[in-house]
Write a structure and sequence with these properties.
It comes from Brugia malayi. With 211 residues, the chain is of the alpha+beta class. Helices cover 21% and strands 36% of the residues. The N terminus and C terminus are likely disordered.
């Protein structure tokens, strides 16, 4: 889900609850932020992705990638990503994964998209900013290190990538970055994402239209 100018976001829910004033008051008092809540690991596997850019002196963008330490994809490059651990929130998960794999402390700025495969695999991609730390250069079980690569190199696959499935996420991140600059004061945000009553199953869809 990328940001667009002059947007209108609608959330369609199907929660089978009454809409009287008492229920509204209960919902309001129980409102929590889904992204900021520990997730139920029994519902599936939750993957988090951190997209981090930096702008070079010539104006071109570079993307932070991590070098894999796993045997099946050893020394290949990929975006900072991994599973949310038990007891973590989704935001905690992406912050931890970026730190472990790249050495940088980050702050998630915006949710770029949510991908679903089957009935139990969810990937949350975030646009993140560096707020501290140093680039990882010492290998461990999490990664062999991290480095910056030009977007052109990555898209042209001149780097030995673990997979190219994240290229579409890069496109969303670049679009968001452009719109953020162009419509800084009018850009609608997805974070935080509210969800009503704790434990209530809600089916929702976010529809984004451009005027």
């Amino acid at each position: 889900m990328s940001a667009n100018d002059e947007q209108s976001d609608k959330v369609i829910t199907n929660d089978n609850t009454d809409s009287d004033n008492n229920d509204k008051a209960t919902t309001t008092s129980a409102t929590a932020t889904a992204i900021d809540q520990s997730i139920d690991m029994q519902l599936g596997t939750y993957i988090v992705v951190g997209i981090i850019f930096r702008e070079r002196d010539d104006g071109n963008l570079e993307l932070l990638l991590t070098q894999e330490a796993k045997r099946r994809c050893l020394e290949k490059w990929y975006i900072p990503a991994g599973r949310v651990e038990p007891g973590e929130t989704i935001l905690d998960g992406v912050i931890r994964e970026v730190l472990e794999e790249t050495g940088y402390k980050c702050e998630p700025e915006e949710l770029l998209g949510i991908e679903v495969q089957g009935s139990g695999w969810y990937r949350f991609s975030f646009y993140c900013n560096i707020i501290g730390g140093e680039r990882k250069v010492i290998a461990d079980n999490e990664s062999l290190g991290a480095n910056w690569f030009s977007i052109d190199e990555i898209i042209a696959k001149k780097i030995d990538l673990r997979a190219s499935d994240f290229l579409k996420i890069i496109e969303k991140a670049m679009e968001y970055r452009q719109k953020r600059k162009q419509f800084a004061n009018n850009l609608s945000r997805f974070l935080p994402i509210p969800i009503s009553v704790d434990g209530l199953f809600i089916e929702f869809a976010i529809l984004r239209t451009i005027k």
